[in-house]
Amino acid sequence: MTHAVAVKRHPPRPRWKRRKGARPAEIVAAALQVFVERGFAAAKLEEVARRAGVTKGTVYLYFKSKDALFKAVVRETIVPCIAEGEALAKAHTGPARELFVKLVHGWWKMIGETQLSGIPKLMMAEAVNFPALARFYYDEVVIRGHKLMAGVLERGIASGEFRAVDVPLSVRLAMAPLLHAAQWRHSFALCTREPFDVPRYIDTHIDLFLNGISHA
Amino acid sequence: MTHAVAVKRHPPRPRWKRRKGARPAEIVAAALQVFVERGFAAAKLEEVARRAGVTKGTVYLYFKSKDALFKAVVRETIVPCIAEGEALAKAHTGPARELFVKLVHGWWKMIGETQLSGIPKLMMAEAVNFPALARFYYDEVVIRGHKLMAGVLERGIASGEFRAVDVPLSVRLAMAPLLHAAQWRHSFALCTREPFDVPRYIDTHIDLFLNGISHA
DNA sequence: CAGGTAAGTTACCTGCCGTTTAGTAACGAA
DNA sequence: TTCGTTACTAAACGGCAGGTAACTTACCTG
Q: Which chain B residues are Cβ-neighbours of A117 within 8 angstroms?
C-alpha cells in the first residue's frame, strides 16, 4: 500500500519498450500455448496478450483478427514440420519401410509429444464451427501430410516391398493411432492416472501396420 | 399473409400444450442433435429449445443446467450402447476373434455411422475446458468400453487364439481407427469431397489388427 | 532538447448466451 | 363455469470476450 510512494525521479525506467521486430513471434508463441490449452473458440486474446507481455490492443496491432492469429500459428509451427517431412522423404534412399518408420517417429518427436499435438486435435475439434479455418488447415496441412505418406506407400508398392493396398485408406490407417494418441494427451490423459506407454504403442502400431501391408 | 385474420372464435386452439411426460425425452433428443452439430460450449440452449418445440425456460424446468442436460444425453444414448456391447460379450460363445468382429461392427453401426459418433468426438474435444464432464464421461463410458474390449482380448489370449500382447495398449490400438473415423466424419469430411470408404477401412483395420495379435 | 511518429496502453462498445424470474395460460377438479 | 395448480412463456440480467478508438509515451531525428 506504500506502493504509490515510489520515487518518481528522472527517467523512471520506461513502463514498456518498443520492440516491433520481436512482438509477432512472441505473440505467436503465446498464442500457440493458449490455443493448445483451450482450443480456438475458448482461447482468450486477453490471455494471449498477457503471456506475450503485452495488452490485447497490441495483438490487434500485429494480427487483424483471432482467425489471422491462428493461421499465423499454424503457418509457423505445423507447416514447417510437414516441410521437414517432405525433405526427409525426398532425401531418403533405401527401403520404404525405413522411411515409414522415420516419418512416424519424426511425427511423434516433432508433433505428437510436443505441444504442437494440440493443433491437429483442436482443428478436428472445431472444424465444424469454423469451416474457413478447417479448409485452410485441410489445404495447408492435411492434404500435404496425406500426400507425403501416400508417396511412401506408393514407393513401397513400386519397389515390391508392400502389397498393392488401397493407398488413401492405408494412409488413414497409418495416421489414425498417432492422431488418437495426440488427442488422448489433450483430453482424457488429464483425468486419469492410467498409464499410456506411447513409444511402445507407436512401435507396436508400426509393427502391425508394416506387417499388414507387406507381402506374406 | 392473411394469416393474422384467422378466426378467433371460442377456444382459439391453445398456443401450446402441457406435455410433462414427453418433454424430457424430446429435449434430450434435440440436445443430442445440437451438441453433435456444435460441440458442448458452442451449443446454444435457445437452439435446443427451438428444436424441441419449447422455449429456453422450459429446458431449465427439466434440467437444472447445460451440464445436467449433457449428462442426460450421454446417459440415454451412449451408455445403453455400452451396455448392449457388454450383453453381447456376455452372451457370446465361440472364438474371441468373432466377438471382436461383432463388437467393432456393432460399434460402427450403433455409434460410428449414426450421429452418436459426435459424442466421443465432442468429449475428446472439450475435455480440457470441462474437466467435470470429462471425468463423468471417462468413468461412465471410456472405462467401461476399455474393460469390454480388454475382456475380449483376454479371452482370446486365454484360449490361445491371441498372443500374450499388452492388453491396455492393444485396446487403444483397436479403438483408435474407429474413433478417428468418427472424428473425421464430424470435421474434415465436411470440407472435402475426398471419398472415405469407411466399411472397407474398418474391415481392413480388423484384418490388420487380428492378424497382428494372432499367433504367427 | 524539442517535437513528431508510431508502438503500446486504456477504456469502452457490442453482441452473445447461460441462467433467473415474473407473469400467463392450459386444464383438471369442484 | 370457476378456480387453483403448475407447465410453459417471455423478458430481463449479468458476465464475458472480440474488436475498436482515443489517448500516452518511448524513442528517433534534427
A: none
